[in-house]
Write a structure and sequence with these properties.
By secondary structure, this protein is mainly alpha-helical. The protein contains 11 helices and no strands. Helix content is 73%, strand content 0%.
Length: 307
């Protein structure tokens, strides 16, 4: 933690001192319950009355309920290291977490749809405001791409919720799938920092991995392009020409994994789990490429591989 007043910080209950604690715990628990509920609904064991139907709930809540919780937990904690400034803790953190929790519960409470939509967008709006406040104050320009991706995620959520309000299944799909690939962009941005760093430290390696800023920028640009194609509806129909950005993503993710690989990682669970987790970005990109080229029957296989 970055502490300005240690006595005041230690007066806060440990669970609320750092953003990752409530959001990681609640996000993981929510994923467990949400996937169980979705599986039960698919098998006809339950049919909860939620706005737009259970598919609309599942489609929105996995990226914007579970996904944003984990993203928020990580960013609210990591921003302290990036800026050297104290992060959100205590009552402000409790309030932000309470807003996230209310946005999850409101789906199952008979309230006006406008209230449900307002709660969903308020959470990501406040998260962006908090991150922007700290990054801009510290002039952390190298982290501005994270603000860009978060802002685009907010637009995707607005697109998904517009589809919910209009009863438009196509808009909901476009918004949710675009968001999923923007989350992939965040994973590549953060993974590009932490995986080589953890690998170097975890194996006691003196030499750091060489940085390749061009690769990071190309992954960012290509990932945002893919998300834009989903948001516009172009990626919902198979087309060989649309396989190109996924070919590029597959090559770049594969190059990263090859460069980071050292045999010693397989002896350290913290390391091989990071590398294996990152590999799903390659698998999903390759899967979408295969679908556009006619080698794969269902694009949902690639989307769920990423998810």
């Amino acid at each position: 933690m970055q502490l300005l007043d240690r006595k005041r910080a230690l007066a806060i209950a440990p669970f609320w001192r750092l953003g990752f604690r409530p959001f990681f715990v609640a996000g993981a628990l929510f994923a467990l319950l949400a996937v169980a509920l979705w599986a039960a609904a698919l098998h006809g064991l339950t049919s909860p009355a939620v706005p737009g139907g259970i598919l609309a709930w599942h489609r929105h809540e996995m990226p914007f309920g579970f996904g944003l919780a984990i993203i928020a937990g990580f960013l609210l904690t990591a921003v302290q290291n990036w800026t050297g400034r104290p992060g959100l803790s205590g009552r402000p953190l409790i309030a932000l977490f309470g807003l996230w929790l209310a946005a999850r519960l409101v789906w199952f409470i008979p309230v006006p749809l406008a209230m449900l939509i307002a709660l969903q967008l308020a959470f990501i709006g406040l998260l962006i405001a908090q991150m922007a406040r700290q990054l801009i104050a510290a002039r952390q320009r190298n982290n501005y791409p994270i603000l860009l991706v978060l802002s685009l995620l907010a637009l995707c959520q607005a697109l998904t919720l517009t589809g919910l309000a209009q009863g438009d299944d196509n808009l909901q799909r476009r918004g949710a799938l675009a968001a999923l690939w923007l989350i992939a962009v965040l994973l590549s941005l953060i993974g590009g920092r932490v995986i080589p760093f953890f690998t170097q430290r975890g194996l006691g390696r003196v030499e750091a991995f060489a940085a390749h800023p061009w690769l990071d920028r190309l992954l960012l640009a290509c990932g945002v392009l893919v998300a834009a194609l989903f948001a516009s509806g172009h990626n919902l129909q198979a087309s060989p020409s649309l396989a190109v950005p996924f070919i590029v993503l597959s090559v770049l993710h594969g190059l990263r994994l090859w460069r980071w690989h050292l045999r010693g990682i397989w002896r350290v669970p913290l390391l091989w789990s990071l590398h294996l987790g990152y590999a799903w970005l390659l698998i999903a990109s390759f899967g979408m490429m295969a679908w556009h080229l006619g080698w794969l029957a269902q694009p949902s296989l690639a989307s769920h591989a990423l998810a």
